[in-house]
Amino acid sequence: MEILFILVPISIILNFAVLIFLRWAIFSNQYEKLDKEARRILE
Amino acid sequence: MSWSFLKNTSDLSEFCENLNNDNWRVELIIEGIHCMSCVSRIENSLHKIKGLNKVNVHLTSNHTIIEWNNNLVKLPMLVEIIHKLGFKAFLSGGDKQLISEQLKSKQMLWNWSVSLICFFQIMMFSMPSYLSGENGLDHNLKSLFDWGSFILIIPVIIFSGKIFFHNAYSGLKNKAINMDLPISLGIILMFLFSVMGTINPSNLFNGKVYYDSISMFIFLLLSSRYLDHKIKTKSWITFTNFFKKLPESSRKVKNKNFKKPRISIVGLNQIRVGDLIQVLPGETINFDGVIVHGSSHLNNMFMTGESTPEAVRIGNYLFAGGINIDGVIYYKVERLRNTSYISKIKKIIEDSQYTKPAFVKMIDKFAQPFLLAIIFLSICSYVIWSPINQQMAINAMISVLIVTCPCALYLSTPIAMSAAANKLAKKGIYIRNLSAFESLAKINLLFLDKTGTLTDSNPSIAQSYLSHSYNHSLIKKIIFQITKDSLHPFSNSLKEKFGDKSNEVELSDLKEISGKGIEAFSETYGKLKLGSAIFCGIDSNEFPSHVNLCQVHLTFDGQWVASFSFKEMLRKKVKEIVASFSRSSIESIILSGDQKDAVIDVAKRVGIKKFFWAMTPKKKHQKIIDAQKNRARVMMVGDGFNDGPALAQSDVSVAMGASPSIVQTKSDFIIISNDIYLIKFLISFSKKTLTVIRQNICWALFYNLVMIPFAFFGYIEPWIAGLGMTFSSCIVAINSYRLNQ
Questions:
Q1: In B174-210, where does DSSP find H-type helix?
Q2: Could you count the other beta carbons within 10 Å of the beta carbon of residue B119?
Q3: Residue B179 DSSP symbol
Q4: Contact B110/A26, CB-based, under 8 Å?
Q5: A9, B133, B544, B708: which could form a disulfide with B465 (CB 3.0–4.6 Å)?
Q6: Sequence-ordered list of residues with C-beta below 8 angstroms from that of B107, at least 6 positions apart, any chain
Q7: If pLDDT is split at 50, 70 and 90, which confidence band does A20 have?
Q8: Is A15 in contact with B145 (Cβ distance < 8 A)?
Q9: Other Cβ atoms within 10 Å of B239 Cβ, number
Q10: Banded model confidence at residue A10, pLDDT cuts 50, 70, 90
Q11: Do B113 and A5 touch (CB under 8 A)?
């Protein structure tokens, strides 16, 4: 099971990558007004 | 932001509310308030100023209401004081408030996401030790997973857990204990023991780590708080966004010739009260106002929840936000944006979120000793167990801290009420005070106003008698001509019945004499009079008439031409709805200012046995006091126009009607439509709300009481305690969310 000693750190790095991406997504309004595009066509 | 512009009274009226003479009220948002001591610092410093009448700072919302006398002190001075204390103030309701609200929401989402993602990964790392059985994991592997979890728990503590530490600390600074204190203590204890176990796996506690419990606990706690926040701000955000969608310019009409209007498109800030504005089909109405020309259908769905378009014509009141469907209309502006009807409603929604239901006030009272007892209990359990088994002692201590936290109990009432208020807002019912739900479910006596509540405001023509000496279509044309510009309810009904736009009869000297009738002059027919028998100078008994009904006559030079008798129209389904009240053992009584005959007639048709006529506002008030002395729980429904004192006196008050005056009254509920069905809905919905609240309280209490002994005697591992505690909060939140659907 020595492979775990490589896989666990990789998973942690991936985890942080996801967090950084998510932070960008949330604070650049990707989750605001999710129905905006659907409504835009009607307005 | 420079505040000096608020020195002039004319500018003040645009942002502030004039209470009377020189007394004004403004609502500010103050940034940088963290705790009760900030609140008292602001309040105390402002109270020292002469001319300040009232200041009220809300800790959680940062909303601040200031009332001052403009003769003695100016608003910019007050704002300066706030700035000198180190806070930032800006006007509420503006874009900045929305931005700060959205930022808060994003921050919460981010904190929640961190806890979610790290929680999943930590669970992956914890799984092997769950499955390893008796012998436990290989030492190296355990060390690897523990260190991995340790790295992942750091962002959870920093981003997601911060809010609990922060709240607990600001509570302590004010010598108060809040719910976040035991939560923070639990998290810190678990984290410390986990770090010790990670560094030295062969310590006193067998290297036990709690990373899985911490992350799950924080994740679930944030979930329920995020849901709570969403429910509470939902209506508010919808309204604020709605404001942003309103057009930024209007078509201002510069002359009064509606056949050839001169139009210029101007920005909102250039419009003043009294300006004329043209609205084309498909456009949204920008200001509150009165139609002066044209007719159309309007969609007021946003406010009234009613999707069927409403017909409007000259004299009708328009609300900002309504959408014009077919005709071109011209209206006179009566109120600008920030004093408009819809902005008042928005404020009512906002304020209602900060009223505390009676149950929460009660919990607040007991919270301090209860939370102290929890901390004491958890220390006790450690002291009792530590001689026997160290690991068990720690488990018991942490579990007691977490499991007994009354989060669910604290959420139970407000979250259900907020969800219910959202649902009501969708139907056009707005609540001013959340605790009104509690009283509403208990009422047994219902006082109804007659006009506007049970009956339409405009009476219908029961019968018309036309003289045979004149051409009938001519009579109709004349009647339409005479009543065209009158706003009297009878005129409205006549206009509706004889609506004819062809303009053949020339009339001059048109004059309305209030309370009597209208007179005019025509070349061919002489002096025309439309009104009561006395006004027309005829004896009503000589002409066809209907007993007990109001009559209007038309004469040409004193010669009888036509008579009309009017009957009050019951609103749709009134009878069934009143019957349903008595089925749910609520007695209905009519309180009307009208004359005996009219009240008796309506009461008979509706099926209400008890009624009072010729009631002045004072008498109405007295009737309610009398009923309350007989231990009745009174609900009063009125238009808020002349029953203000009665509304204020009753246990639950509902102001109903599509008139701008209803938002001024201090009633508990405001219904912006004339549909009496909504009263029935309101009563049954409040019962449903109360059921949900009871379920929430029962569940939360049951859970806390059952879990305490188990935790105390060490039967519950911290992760079960965390799961149970947060799970019960989530159940409460989800159960309440049902009301929103």
A1: 180-199
A2: 22
A3: T
A4: yes
A5: B544
A6: none
A7: very high
A8: no
A9: 21
A10: very high
A11: no
- A residues 5-34 lying closer than 8 A (beta carbon) to B: 5, 8-9, 11-12, 15-16, 18-19, 22-23, 26-27, 31-32
A43–chain B nearest CA distance, Å: 11
- In the prediction, which pLDDT does B503 show? 61
pLDDT in the model for residue B118: 94
Q: What is the per-residue pLDDT for B36?
A: 65
Q: Could you give the C-alpha distances from B347 to B27, B72, B247, in angstroms and in order?
A: 10, 27, 21
> CA-nearest residue of chain A to B149?
A12
For the domain made up of B460-567, give the CATH fold.
Answer: Calcium-transporting ATPase, cytoplasmic domain N (3.40.1110)
Cβ pair B430, B669 in contact under 8 A? yes
Q: What's the confidence (pLDDT) of residue B339? A: 74
CA distance B503 to B505: 6
What residues of chain A lie within 8 A of the CB of B145, using their CB?
8
Q: Which residue has the tokens 């005697």?
A: B713
Asked if residue A26 has pLDDT above 60, the reply is yes
Q: What residue ranges of chain B have pLDDT lower than 50?
A: 1
Task: Report the interhelical angle of B718-740 vs B390-403 (nearest 10°).
Answer: 10
| Predicted ipTM of the assembly | 0.92
* Strands laid side by side in the B323-324 sheet: B310-312, B296-299, B323-324
SS3 at position B429 = strand
Question: Which helix H or strand E contains B519, and what residues bound it?
Answer: strand B517-522
| Model confidence at A4: pLDDT above 80 | yes
- Taking only the tens place, the pLDDT of each residue in B490-499 is 777 787 777 6
What is each CA distance from B336 to B14, B333, B340, in whole angstroms? 8, 7, 6
Q: Rounded to an integer, what distance in angstroms lies between the CA atom of residue B269 and that of residue B2?
A: 18
Tokens of B98: 């929305």
**CA–CA–CA angle B288, B294, B297 (5° rounding):** 70
Provide the pLDDT for residue B10.
64
pLDDT at site B464: 80
Which sign does the torsion angle of CA B270, B276, B280, B286 carry?
positive
Q: How far apart are CA B415 and CA B231, in angstroms?
A: 7
Which amino acid does the sequence have at B215?
S
Q: Please tell me the distance in Å from B151's CA to the nearest CA on chain A.
A: 8
Instruction: Give the CATH class of B248-283+288-335.
Output: mainly beta
pTM over 0.95: no
Record: contact A15-B102, CB cut-off 8 A: no
Tokens of B167: 């709240």
Q: What is the pLDDT of residue B546?
A: 56
pLDDT of residue B327: 82
Residue A21 sits in which domain range?
4-40
**Residues in B touching A1 (Cβ below 8 Å):** 138, 141
Q: Sign of the C-alpha dihedral, residues B712, B716, B717, B720?
A: negative
pLDDT, residue A33, reads 74
Using the beta-carbon criterion (under 8 Å), do A22 and B148 form an inter-chain contact?
no
The tally of domains found in chain A comes to 1
pLDDT at B153: 94
Q: Where are the alpha helices (DSSP H) in B529-672?
A: 533-536, 574-583, 596-606, 617-629, 644-649
Please state the domain extents for chain B: 4-92, 100-237+351-417+690-740, 248-283+288-335, 460-567
The answer to whether residues B29 and B97 touch, using CB atoms and an 8 Å cutoff, is yes
CATH of domain B4-92: 3.30.70.100
Q: Are residues B461 and B649 in contact, defined by beta-carbon separation less than 8 angstroms?
A: no
